[in-house]
Amino acid sequence: MARECVIDTKVLVNANQPITTRLRKGSLFAKRIGLLEDIKKGKWTVLYSAKLVAEYVEHVKGLKNDFIEEFFAKLVNHRGAIRNYAAWPGRDREKARKCRYPEHDDHVLRTAIRPDSSTIITEEETMIRADACIYRNFGVHILHTKDA
């Protein structure tokens, strides 16, 4: 069964490069592409929200490789992707602040909150440092791309 994840915009921006040569095994770029390939294969189900998609569109300029194109196609045709945006009472906002989760990324966390555990995949250290506390409070793990 596929695991559910939210892909932080920074991961997509950094993966949106032309692939002109063979990927260097173990490089962070290769890990980003490997993640997108795993999504394509159905190992991950992508969670998304209107706010997150708007951010993707704003920051991911020009689809520069097939993996990025396929990721956006999943969002459009809803195959392997689930639209999700959790209710956000004030107490949840307070919990996120106590966890030192960055406020400007609350929309990413809200997209990840599900009845069962899910994962945010990012390259932002401030988000990653909040992993244990966010998992305790919301059931959402936060992983670096290299560990996904």
> What's the number of extended β-strand segments?
5
> Widest sheet: strand order?
3-2-1-4-5
- What is the helix/strand order? EHHEHHEHHEHHE
- Overall structural class, as computed from helix and strand content, comes to alpha/beta
CATH topology: Rossmann fold
CA distance, first residue to last residue? 16 Å
Strand content: 15-25%
Helix content: 40-55%
C-alpha geometry: globular
What features would you describe in this structure?
This protein is of the alpha/beta class. It contains 8 helices and 5 strands. It has a 5-stranded parallel beta sheet, with helices on both faces. It is globular. The mean pLDDT is 94.
Brief overview, please?
With 148 residues, this protein is an alpha/beta fold. The chain has a single domain (3-147), classed as Rossmann fold, CATH 3.40.50.
